[in-house]
Amino acid sequence: MNALEAQLSYAFGDTLPASGATLEVAPGVHWLRMGLPFALDHINLWLLEDSVETEEGIRHGWTIVDCGIANDATRTAWDAIFASELRGLPVLRVLVTHCHPDHVGLADWLCSRWQAPLWMSGGEYLSARIMSAALPGADGSASLPHFQQHGMHDPEVIAKVSQRKSYYPNMVPAVPQAYHRLADQQQLRIGQHQWRVITGFGHAPEHVALYCADLDLLISGDMVLPRISTNVSVFAIEPESNPVQQYMDSLEKYRALPTTTLVLPSHGKPFRGLQIRIDQLQQHHRERLAEVVEACTAAPQSASDIVPIMFRRPLDAHQMTFALGEALAHLHKLWFDGVLKRRLDADQVYRFSAEAR
Questions:
Q1: Comparing C-alpha atoms, which of 178, 91, 183 is closest to residue 128?
Q2: Which of 234, 269, 274, 355 is deepest in the core (most CB within 10 A)?
Q3: Whole-model pTM above 0.85?
Q4: How is the beta sheet containing 207-212 ordered, strand by strand?
Q5: Nearest CA to 102 among 34, 55, 186, 54?
Q6: Are strands 57-65 and 91-95 parallel, antiparallel or unpaired?
Q7: Are strands 118-121 and 91-95 parallel, antiparallel or unpaired?
């Protein structure tokens, strides 16, 4: 546990759900974990006891929150959960916090298997449909000219990125053709409890978190994580976005929740100390921004030049694209704030500079 983590309170200590099983974290709220084939090797998923009114009467079952990526290992893991944890009740709906593959990957499979509707925000649903279809500009290879314009020059990374046209569809092969829209501040009844939708930006187009006042719980998705900072990147499809500003603004939407709120994150362990973690994340970005200003004051910098300043560890090709996107995001905030100037040099690479102070 690092010094920042030590300021948080982990409600269940080091206890994790057993493989193929769930851990009840509050009445009717069950935690499960599934593996990921990345350095970030797991995702937390949630089963909520639910009921819906039908013409035949009340139907009891479950709402699934987030899905895991589409691979055989995750399908097998879900089959184990269905066999042991549902108490013979059906899945009534599938709710997805955002469009990233570890969250939406198996949504179509789950919805089809249970004949259950999909619930997402409009921004996340449409983004998932676009990327799953690998439309021009949203396919994996579209990121190559974008990143090259910001200084990507490593031949190995370029080769891998150029081959990633089907990167997203491989993990999200299909998205249901219809959905129920979730919107900010919407009240959603799940089982015996009301949950309030809180949208967030910067990490994803219209990320959905869910707060239940009755249970004092926040399903935070990727917006508030206990150990790592959420990735905020500038991507090819929105090349002049300002995601760091959007993310820092979005964090403040959670500050007014009670200090006793139990946070259920998508990665890491459930914790209390939401406002402390918000402060930590805000400070993290302020420190990174200060480092970027210092570098750009010394000499003009591309996003590629900033990566080793912000990330002081070896990065593989997968990690490098996120690191480059995040470096660019910090440059963009400072550029939008008027702290940095941007120019396109003769080598067709954008570099950012600041006046010495």
A1: 178
A2: 234
A3: yes
A4: 9-10, 271-272, 262-265, 217-221, 207-212, 193-200, 187-190
A5: 34
A6: parallel
A7: parallel
